[in-house]
Amino acid sequence: MTVRPIVRFGDPRLRTRGERVTRFDRHLGTVIDDMIETMRDAPGAGLAAQQIGLALQLCVIEVDGRTYELANPRIVHLSDETEDAWEGCLSLPGFRALRSRAARAVVEGQDRTGRKIRISGRSELARAIQHEYDHLQGELYVDGLPAGAEIITEEELDARIEERQRRAEASGSERRPELGQA
Ligand code: NI
Asked: What is the SS3 assignment for 159?
């Protein structure tokens, strides 16, 4: 397995919609293994093919110690209930923005052998599913922010959380997720 360089914000490869995966062969397995290795090295909670420069409908996710590989994903359910969290992306390292996402998501796709899979997630897993799905369409999490939304550095976020804790205010919706960057 090889850690591959992660494509950064501004590179047009992040803006390219992925092609469907049609060959479930050994090469695909190698790409998926490299993506998992690259995600763990970063470290991150997910990685899309675009982030290693490949225009494919392919991503990996790792949340709560479970690893998912997903080709040709299709989101089949998003809850009306939403959650706000400070989301980040490995292609925009060091930054976060408060992003609203569906609290629960169900996605269907295929694993490396072409077998059909279905992943049902809530909170961090639901967020990771939506974040990676967007990458595969050539979208980034900052695209979906409302007008006037802040994008802040991780240092600034940590400072705000400390300040908030010092004041012992209820943290409410502004919690920092375990999701990290994806
Ligand atoms: Ni990302």
From this structure: helix
